[in-house]
Amino acid sequence: MRRPLIGITSYVEPATFTVWTDVTVALLPYLYVEQVVRAGGQPVVLPPAGEPAGALRGLDGLVLAGGGDIDPARYGARPHERTGYVRGFRDEAEFALLAGALDAGLPYLGVCRGLQVLNVALGGTLHQHLPDVAGHTGHAPGPGVFGHLPVTPVPGSRLAKALGTEPVTVPHYHHQAVDRLAPGLTVTATAGDGTVEAVELEGAAFAMAVQWHPEEAEDGALFEALVAAC
Fold first, then answer.
1. How does pLDDT run along the chain (230 residues), one tens digit per residue?
2. Which residues are annotated as catalytic?
């Protein structure tokens, strides 16, 4: 049986590898690739260039990966001093990809930034610097350092079917989060400080997004759920 083709969005950033230094590359943490393969899918990396939404016709599912902050102008806000790594070309590509995927009913998993793109695309807003709201830095303790905080899935949600209904400690690395929830989205997990940590789109066959980084987790349940939906 053919493995479902799962598109995964990528970064475009300067990087150093082998003999090359400070080269602009399309890149993606390889854990995303490994999780999709382990779940039974075939990963397809989607750089934010050209018209990536056109690739949706050949895909069975879509993952919007983590990354820098969304341009606050997209939700009618001015940039916070801590808003950073805004890449307008990536915003343009991923908002188009998401719109195409939802129109086509393609199974969708949003990771960190992928939740924020979903919320903003549907009319929601973001807290631009979560420590201002939560009063702590536990969701992103330091540069390149994951926080490990429990989240509680909502019974009856797709998330709870994958992870159970008891609090589960997951790897976090985000300094932004949902402020105003978009119409049509349902909160399916929160952190102890009230931060929205997962949402699902009402009426969709499979459209969920989490604010944490499931690619870093030993349990690949969310990727398995995505591939199963494909």
1. 799 999 999 999 999 999 999 999 999 999 999 999 999 999 999 999 999 999 999 999 999 999 999 999 999 999 999 999 999 999 999 999 999 999 999 999 999 999 999 999 999 999 999 999 999 999 999 999 999 999 999 999 999 999 999 999 999 999 999 999 999 999 999 999 999 999 999 999 999 999 999 999 989 999 999 999 99
2. 112, 213, 215
Residue pair 52/97 in contact (Cβ under 8 Å)? The answer is yes
User: What is the rounded distance in angstroms from the CA atom of residue 33 to the CA atom of residue 45?
Assistant: 9
132 is written with which tokens? Answer: 């201002």
CA dist 97 and 53 (Å) reads: 5
Alpha carbon 48 to its chain's center: 15
Residue 111 · residue 215 · CB < 8 Å? yes
Q: Closest by alpha carbon to 211, among 197, 191, 193?
A: 197
Please report which residue ranges of the chain form alpha helices under DSSP H.
30-38, 88-104, 113-121, 131-134, 158-163, 221-229
d(Cα 36, Cα 28) in Å, to the nearest integer? Answer: 13
